[in-house]
Amino acid sequence: MNAFNLSFRNFGLLALGLGLGLSLAAQTTVQPAAPVKQVYNEQADARADLNRAVAQAAAAKKQVLVVYGANWCGDCQALDRKMSDGTLAGPVAKRYVTVKVDVGRFNRNLDVAEQMGVSLKKGIPAVAVLGADGQLVGATNGGELADARNMGDDAVLKVLDGMQTKR
User: Fold this and answer.
1) Cα gap 99→16, rounded to integer Å
2) CATH superfamily of domain region 46-161
3) 3-state helix/strand/coil string of the chain
4) I want to staple 75 with a disulfide (CB 3.0 to 4.6 A). Which of 1, 5, 148, 158 is the partner?
């Protein structure tokens, strides 16, 4: 066998391999990824939103639940589903005026979180509870909700209840 035949044979095997790969690829249907719900307004003025929430909470005699997160965060998306559509929606709406603060890729509104005493170092979502007067009641600082997608509703409520130390 000469070099030409060997090269041709290798090319043929390569072509055959590519053909199998293309044929397998053609048989596999790729489902498009579901669009990510825009839970956090990435253009929002967090301080203005917080001021509005405090005013609403004072009028409704509720507390403010500040949720720090980002649209790319699966746990943030899961927590939002639990609190807006799931069985937590009722208890959360009854107790809180909720405001969501976008932290982007940990490059937005970090000063707002820091001013509230909320550490984002252990993950997001992170939350703070403010009284109707705007004063901090409690905050997560240890990543308590950073695994929200795997937490049951009772576990989430336990975290929120743990921040109800003063009224």
Assistant:
1) 58
2) Glutaredoxin (3.40.30.10)
3) CCHHHHHHHHHHHHHHHHHHHHHHHHHCCCCCCCCCCCCCCCCCCHHHHHHHHHHHHHHHCCEEEEEEECCCCHHHHHHHHHHHCCCCHHHHHHHEEEEEEECCCCCCCHHHHHHHCCCCCCCCCEEEEECCCCCEEEECCCCCCCCHHHCCHHHHHHHHHCCCCCC
4) 148
Give the integer Cα–Cα distance in Å for 95 and 61: 9
pTM over the 0.90 mark: no
Q: What is the pLDDT of residues 55-103, one digit of tens each?
A: 999 999 999 999 999 999 999 999 999 999 888 999 999 999 999 999 9
Name 128's bridge partners. 66, 139
CA distance 146 to 94: 24
| CA 77 – CA 39 distance, rounded (Å) | 7
Tell whether omega for the bond before 125 is within 30 degrees of 0, i.e. cis: yes
C-alpha distances (whole Å) from 26 to each of 23, 30, 55, 59 are 5, 10, 57, 60
